[in-house]
Amino acid sequence: MDKLIVGVIIFLLIGGFMIKCSLDTDLSDPNDRKTFGQAFFRWLGQLGSSSAETAKYAVKEQEWLPTNETIKNTTGTSNESQ
């Protein structure tokens, strides 16, 4: 769990650094800090939205539980190879 938290923090730091560099901001200037903060939180919102869309697709569109079709295909394949 600790490694996950460290990984998330590193990911956010790298993202923040990339935003800072792409905007060419000086974080000692209050206006630049505001611009950076808006861009960073917009990115976090997009990150959350993309993650939610990916989770919806994974749950809705993918077959996660075995079905009769899956079991028949597996059984048929293993019987043919014997």
Q: How many domain modules?
A: 1
Strand content: under 5%
Beta strand count: 0
Counted by DSSP, the helix tally is: 3
Shape: elongated
- Helix coverage percent: over 70%
From the N-terminal CA to the C-terminal CA, the straight-line distance is 44 Å
Structure class: mainly alpha
Radius of gyration: 23 Å
Spans of at least 5 consecutive residues with low confidence: 78-82
What's the SSE pattern? HHH
- Biggest sheet overview: none
Please, what is the average pLDDT? 85
Summarize the entry for a quick read.
The chain has three helices and no strands. With 82 residues, the chain is an all-alpha fold.
Structure, described:
- This protein is an all-alpha fold and 82 residues long.
- The chain has one domain.
- It has three helices and no strands.
- The chain has helices at residues 2-23, 30-61, 68-81.
- α1 (2-23) packs across α2.
- The longest helix is centred in the middle third of the chain and has 32 residues, at 30-61.
- Residues 78-82 have low confidence and may be disordered.
Key terms:
single chain, 82 residues, mainly alpha, 0% strand, elongated, disordered C terminus
Give the topology.
Elements: H1 2-23, H2 30-61, H3 68-81
